[in-house]
Amino acid sequence: MNAVAEIGAQPWVGAGLRPEQLAWYDRPGWQSDPRFATATAEQRAGLLALHEQGWFKTRLNLLQHSADAVDAAWREAAAQGLSVQIDSDSLGRSLDWAELLELEAQRVPLSWRLVNAQQQLLALAELVAHPQLQAWMACLVGAEPQLLKCSYFYRGSQARPHADMPYAPIPAPGALLTLWLALEDADAGNGALTVFPGSHRRLRGFDAGGGSLLLADTDPDSAQARAYLDHVEAELARAAIAPVIQTLRAGQLVVLHAATVHGGVPITDWQRTRRSLVLHVGRQTV
Ligand SMILES: O=C(O)CCC(=O)C(=O)O
């Protein structure tokens, strides 16, 4: 039988994570932490929601043309043949520029994203450096937040419900955070993000072997990754947690706890893009 881990509460700690591997806002007495005392009223509200509900929503002052600027930058990178990682969720593999441009030209329904392209694309680097994003990272992750992964989604991922924590091989997996920024309006038609409130506390953890909560094999096609996704589906049904589809306007930011289950709804209108910036941020030191 799988080890049972109540995420975010003592049993989770007992199931594999030491308190220092948790986010500071999940540790006993966290509201006495100086970081809570010095947080702004908006940050406090976010921290309380993250602790209780596993997510919150806020808004950034975002330039309207940000997504278009990134698109212009990747088209330029494609023309120059710059090496950038392009992952396609719908094909389940990586693409090169030639294949991507060909499929886009043929209007093939294709979900894809650029991974860690902020070093090649200045427009993307500027988005990551957005002062309000950086302020949230500093508040939520603490000193030296580390950007583990930066994804620029062109269309929705249609990802099955999952939490990000089991995929993050960092010493403090509980300190992982997902920052999901809408670069254009997102809704059910273009494959919105969906969130399962309270799942960070109410779902039992997946035993990836020896009581570990981290997947040894994160390849989406691996038997273990599939077993994890099946486990999440069964747990959501057991706990009767309904998804909340995030209908977002450009500039809205959703912050997700490491253990909060989320995914992407099926795309019904493939003519639309659903451009978003998704940052996985964590702490390397415990
Ligand atoms: O944007 C989406 O559709 C889902 C993103 C997601 O699940 C992730 O990046 O972990």
From TrEMBL:
Transmembrane segments: none annotated. Pfam families: PhyH. PANTHER family: ECTOINE DIOXYGENASE, PHYTANOYL-COA DIOXYGENASE DOMAIN CONTAINING 1. This is Phytanoyl-CoA dioxygenase family protein. InterPro entries: Phytyl_CoA_dOase-like. Keywords: Dioxygenase, Oxidoreductase. Its cofactor is Fe(2+). The lineage of its organism: Bacteria, Pseudomonadati, Pseudomonadota, Betaproteobacteria, Burkholderiales. SUPFAM superfamilies: Clavaminate synthase-like. The keyword Oxidoreductase applies. Gene3D superfamilies: q2cbj1_9rhob like domain (2.60.120.620). One of its GO terms (molecular function) is iron ion binding.
